[in-house]
Amino acid sequence: MNQTINNLLIEQLASWETARNNYAALSDVQVKELDVNGIPYKVQFNPARIVSSGAKVDAQSIKERKCFLCPANLPPVQKGIPFEGHYNILVNPFPIFPRHLTIPEVAHVNQRIAVRFKDMLALAQTLTDYTIFYNGPKCGASAPDHAHFQAGNKGFMPIEKDWRGQVAGKVADYGEATLWYLNDAPRATLVIEAANKKHAAALFDIIYHSLDIKPGDDEPMMNVLAWYEDEKWIVCVFPREKHRPACYTAEGDANLLSSPASVDLGGVFITPVEKDFLKITAEDIAQILSEVSLSAEDFHRVRQRIKEKI
């Protein structure tokens, strides 16, 4: 499957000007590295991502636009690879990664993780060159009305190689799966390490039901990363408190267009505006993470609930 996807990427870059130009622009993307409370983060200046970071995701705006993930609305030049009969693997034309995929459900159904977490594990096991990610409907998804995953080539996000060194302790064992939590405040991170798909899914279900659902929402706020290595799944779950930090709508110098999603929480902050890239500091990232992530007290409470359910 990895080779089939590489072939798709080559074909799409040859035939699709928008994608070709945006992937070519990645070679000029500026990156800087920051240390946030001892945790390495990268900041990427990526103007093409304004489409996602600046997306209007209120109910009215969504109602008034055509869904860009529905098969009928894809550009004629965009081709896909079917996955398990009801997903379509597409090249993302606004990339963060050198190889960036969008994997929408064929049907127009809301962005929800509970019913499709096993699909995420299946994708991770099949697309072994990629990390799969899920952005909740109020956690960075620019299409909260259409179920989809994304995928980016492995090794891009610092957390992929650094998480083991950040383990604070074990929350619980569940069969052939272990749940760890990291010492990476102000981010709040749970990591499932599992050799068994059923046990990984059961453990995720327990996490899901240990998180609060905010009034008016249909699922707990979260971002999820998943990849498969050494015959095991690694799944990072980032429970969320808030969609966007105060700086997103602030006026004047305080404004910083940051709408954190899975990739930001994985350690690569995306700034689509150059002034933000130039001025953002480790303190800014710590502040943004402290606003959108669970507090230390809430995170502790969630871990206690998980222990009680196992």
TrEMBL record:
GO biological process, one term: glucose metabolic process
GO cellular component, one term: cytoplasm
Domain DUF4922: 9-153
Chemical reaction(s) catalysed: GDP-alpha-D-glucose + phosphate = alpha-D-glucose 1-phosphate + GDP + H(+)
Domain GDPGP1-like C-terminal residues, every copy: 181-309
Protein's job: Specific and highly efficient GDP-D-glucose phosphorylase regulating the levels of GDP-D-glucose in cells.
Name of the featured protein: GDP-D-glucose phosphorylase 1
